[in-house]
Predict the structure.
Amino acid sequence: MEPQFEILQTLLPIRKSKTGKDVTPSARALYNYLEVKTPFTTWLARRVEEYGFVEGKDFLTILEESTGGRPESDAALTVDMAKELGMVEKTANGRTVRQYFIWAENKLKELATAPPAHLPADFATALRLLADSVEEKARMQHQIEEMEPKAAFTDAVSVSTGCIPMSAVAKYLKMPNVGRTKLFRMLREDRVLQGNNEPYASQIASGHFEVQLQAFEAGSKGRRTAGTTRCTPKGLIYLAKKYKQSV
């Protein structure tokens, strides 16, 4: 598998809708990966108007609660719409998005239609092959069903901000023996993060990280604010290149 496809499987998982269409649950995650400069709502509305996409057929608007308490819009997209949005951006990332969705659809079709690699030598082997095939299809179907916008996707990517918890970043970089704690240490040593685990201003300006502010009660000290560092989709690509040199 191409490394960028592995990252896109995290950012843009594919699931079956109730009508049987292949959909991906976050237009905002796609927008972040494409590195579009226009504001998200303006970009999406413009593309819907320009290319005649229809709500309820090609996409479904989702309102999520943002960290500031105000609803923030997102949309679930059909794979066909997501492919077209990637293509019209006319960038390297746009081409990669289109190639990813084509690759993913082909893989799902292969899984559904692939015959056994060879004829079984006896009846017992045939039964074992059949059982393995059923188990694999059931496992893949279970994975597809879990890819709901408010379930598995939110474990890796925050739907409201499009950002990724650092624990998920460590998981998807797949570096041996590197978990969240060790990743933070590496990023501090490499001058990506400061001593308090918050990104340097240059990293925020580059769009690699965001800091989510949260208020909490600190007893006699009153109400305090703490920051949580999260990685953007662009930042995940940046870290994959930095530590794997293969994206």
Remarks:
- Residues 164-244 form one domain.
- The CA atoms of residues 101 and 131 lie 29 Å apart.
- Strands lie at 15-16, 22-24, 59-65, 71-78, 164-165, 209-217, 223-231.
